[in-house]
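ERR on first pass: missing label on line 2. Operator R.T. fixed the label and resubmitted. Corrected input:
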Amino acid sequence: MSVPFIAALQQSAIAPVGPQAGRIAFLFWSFLILLTCVFLLTIGFTLWALSRHHRGIEQEPLERTHRPSAATDARMTRAIGAATVVTVLILFGLLIASVVTGEQLAGLRYASNAMAVEITGNQWWWEIRYLSDNTRRILRTANELHIPVGRPVMIRGTSHDVIHSFWAPNLHGKRDLIPSRITTEWIEADQPGQYRGQCAEFCGLQHAHMALWVIAEPQEKFDAWFEAQLQPAAPPEDAHLQAGEQAFLSSSCVLCHTIRGTDAAGQVAPDLTHLASRLTIAAGTLPNNKGNLGGWIADPQTIKPGNHMATVALKSEDVQPLLDYLESLH
Amino acid sequence: MAFIEGSLFCCLIAMYFYYRLGTFPWPPPGVQLPSRLLPACCMTLLLLSCIGSYLASEAARKGDRKGMIWGMGLNLALAIAAMTCRAIDWRLWNFKWTTGVYGSITWAIVWIHTLDVLGDLVYTAVLALLVLLGNVGPRQRIGVHADSVVWYFLVAIWVPLYVTVYWVPYFWGANG
Amino acid sequence: MRYIVTAFLFLLAGGVEALLMRLQLSFPNNPMLGPDKYNQIFTVHGSNMMFLFAVPVMEGMGVWLVPLMLGTRNVAFPRLNAFGYWMYLIGGLLLYVGLFTNTGPDAGWFAYTPLSGPQFSPGKRVDIWAQMITFTEISAMCVATELAVTILKMRAPGMSLNRIPMYCWAMLVQSAMVLFAMPAVMVASNVFLLTDRTIGTHFSNPAEGGDPLLYQHIFWFFGHPEVYIIFIPALGMVSAIVAAHSRRSIFGYPAMVLSLVATAFIGFGLWVHHMFATGLPQIGEAYFTAASMMIGITSGVQIFCWIATLWTGRVRLNTAMHFVLGFIFIFVMGGLTGIMLAAIPIDLQVHDTYFVVAHFHYVLIGGALFPLFGGFHHWFPKFTGRMINERLGKVSFWVLFLGFNLTFFPMHLLRLKGMPRRVYTYSPEMHWTAANGMATAGALIILIGGILFIVNVISSRRSGPIAGANPWDAGSLEWAADSPPAPYNFAFLPGAVSRYPLWSDPADRVVVTGMRNDRREILVTETVSGEPRFRHVLPGSRIWPLLTALLATAGLVGSIFYFQWYYIGAVLTAIGLIGWFWPKEPVEIEP
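pass 2 clean. output:
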């Protein structure tokens, strides 16, 4: 199920697809328009002060005292006083708008049908766990977040190492992921689509290559995806794929990665059980296809220098079966 | 000077309470709270040593060389006694600065204050030496006066620090 | 003077780093700089500009200008000044030694824990950063102390507090801010980071009760006032330039002074607006939104007063005024994007994106650098005794102005397309290429503007027309001294009968007579009224400030490697200080 790699007005806060980002975008445009007017007025007055036209009003000589007359001073004082009052009122209005929007954003937490997802930042990938009271239905995946359209999702964020920040601008502002703390954010998508997000707090060498995809789907499609993801990996059918599975299990991959349904249960790297169902690999760095996957496994340090994936030594006859096996993990 | 050090110590006190609010139990298990006897002696001695500073600065105002030496001497003697109490107290602590954040912040507060005190002791000692050697000019007199102001400040700032480090854990119990 | 030249060299270094960054980002997947080098370069760029250029250059201008404006001979503690300078130079060199030996800090100019902590930043990189801060903060605090004392106690007779020039008010307010804010960053860098990294304390280790967020609080408690520390002297310079070139006194002196003080106070209460994305309680955050917006009022009042001054003055549109107008344009835009950032919902989208980069470059370059350049052009005749070439000056202004806007305006748009900060590369599908390309082109234009400015300075210095003492016919006391001023500033210390003494009736102007001219004497005055109290002799040049600085350096640099060096360094510094203050010859003071 490989989906074409789409990038439209991606990762943009002014293309909101949900109520949260929508309210923020509205606030942003309001601020922008109002403050642009303020800016133009200020520059206008400054330039006008320099032009000659207004000099018809004041021609009093300055040389002796270097101060204008008391009447002019009084007039200026009134003007500045008025401008200050207007400034205060504008700022007050903006403050109220900001606080009201903040309240609206927080309002999503009172929804009754919210879904809870825990996102843990790691250097330089995202661990995603769909929470549930039933431990058998806790789904662990990585780097790609599916959410149902029209339903609020509570993101519980934390980090295993340094401070990261979860940011999918089409959906909402960002929330820092801080080790030993839980931060929360509610998001909701109103339209299906694929939305790119990126880590927004400098987290080291590969901060630039820590992206994730948020896929919003209608509830039925989401449920189908979720059920499929909960299943362990199907055992490989033919000898070629079995050879690939063997290559995986006998190499150092298993020290870090998990493929449910096999003995591989490493917890420090992305869960690969349904690797082939994802759009990208290496946290949004490359589109997910056989060529890129091969390049990634062969030499991760060139693609993402400094990341924590070791270069695995594979026998050359194992490479193709391994790749085919991994690409069969839908 | 007062700005700088005051700002620094206010930061440290704020940090102490911030950590206290977020960490249970306080102090962490295995840590014995410092006894309050020796620090109380230390506090008393520090307060008494201000008398020495006061005498020295009054003598400086009058240009009285002997008075300055006696005043500074008294100040030094009591201050050294106070620091000795503190040093003994430290040996009785059963935690280091690596023992959780409680250890870190407690050691930081007390140690930074001690460094300041030691610095001022050196300053006082050098000044006393200069006066002893016969330099009783205006610069030295201003120096003695400034020294006593710094000393008052160091003792005064120690009061809230002392309360924070030695008394707060008792009143603000181990949990919550 | 050394401060200014050194700071300028650091500006050039920072500019080189900026160019490298822009070149790296000019097209996607650029292999020019790898992540490690890029991370070091952007960290050093930020640290260099903030700690090694912006604050020192403002302090340096203050050290040079304030005594002249107050009608006295020198700052209050010249040897302290020298000590501060050496500490600054050494701290800067430390940072660059690190960069050139591939040990440059790479955790960002604010080095958030736990990324900068012992676990995720092994090695000495961040330690070098932390100690560089110690050096520069000590330097800044030395200068702030002496400027404050100079302004309060060493003014021309008759210059009461409500007659001191706006620039001196700005420097006084700035000095007070430095004394309050710098200790916080010392706590953050030294107590938090350095002890965590070297002796195993747990200030930011969550496993033992520490908290990375507390680092942010303490750092930003310093960090936000820091930008006002950079910006407030620039406001003072703008007042000086506007008054001189509108040929009238600044409108609304009490309002301007109160605005400066209010800006300083409010500036200390804003720091959480750097932390809105961390999930702090909403009520607390709302207060910081309100405060962050309130500071727009104080800046607004100042801008209104300047516009009023221009409105009723006779404006002379020379290069200095061009820079002031550029300041108004760029700073107001930056300030308004700041108001946007103050709104938490908007901040949640733009925090840590190129919008913030655009905002702070607008307010820092527009708000501090443009006035600084205006100040250079305005006081150039006083510095050098010659007039700077106006035509080349105006051309360099326009190049800088256009280049600046071309570089940083597209960054606002980049954030609308989702580009976060501190990424060393990006993929072509993100459609960020065009804006990044424009920004790089703009950076090259800024470079040209800078070169023009330097050419102008050098050629005017050599062959510009000779300036008299007061070529602009300005009103404040520095224009009564020779151009360039003698080392003792004034042969006869002037008195001050009004806010703009040189604009008073010549018959009313006074000078002080009766002071000795065979030793360095200055007048100490009452704090508020400016009445003279007694004479004071300033010390001459000595080797002790340099020696003490070197001894302190040994301690601080050593502590990067072994914590015990802190104590050794303290002992060494004490020896240096004792030598410094040991009296040389008997001195008397006459009333």
